[in-house]
Amino acid sequence: xxxxxxxxxxxxxxxxxxxxxxxxxxxxxxxxxxxxxxxxxxxxxxxxxxxxxxxxxxxxxxxxxxxxxxxxxxxxxxxxxxxxxxxxxxxxxxxxxxxxxxxxxxxxxxxxxxxxxxxxxxxxxxxxxxxxxxxxxxxxxxxxxxxxxxxxxxxxxxxxxxxxxxxxxxxxxxxxxxxxxxxxxxxxxxxxxxxxxxxxxxxxxxxxx
Length: 209
Known about the structure:
Blueprint: E1 2-6, H1 15-27, E2 34-38, H2 44-51, E3 58-61, H3 67-76, E4 81-85, H4 91-99, E5 103-108, H5 112-117, H6 119-128, E6 132-136, H7 145-153, H8 169-173, H9 181-184, H10 189-204
Parallel strand pairs: 1-4, 1-5, 2-3, 2-4, 5-6
């Protein structure tokens, strides 16, 4: 089992969006079992699951005190991938999720305030000693700011996903009825970006492509 922690101290980075889109990507049409653990008090991932007609991916709600137990339950039940959606602006939530993750993914917008804000999250994963990667999320289609952001983010010394997730309506619209972008608009640019970025993340985990 591989556990991916979506970590960002700054709110609005898109942790929930990536966790849900990737969870469906990992689950749909493949012989895998996937779970999402929502430890954000806002419970957005859990709310999405209630709107979803399909019974997968499995959704669990936990908190920083019992996230380890939730991960252990997933392993006992044969999950292949577990995504942990964390709470912004709460260091302990990020820390405890990092401790049980095989890989930390740090979503980051292309604006300078977003880039500067990930320093505290990078420090946490370095403290825990797990591998981490940076995902440029909510980028601006057709704008040079996305590449400039990638160049600035190199200062943190972490791998940066070459596939940038742009701000696209289909990614948000899919959540209205509990779907993911590949289910709402499978041929869209948004779906292509999610598919390609998940393949890259999977490669960082050592998974087959």
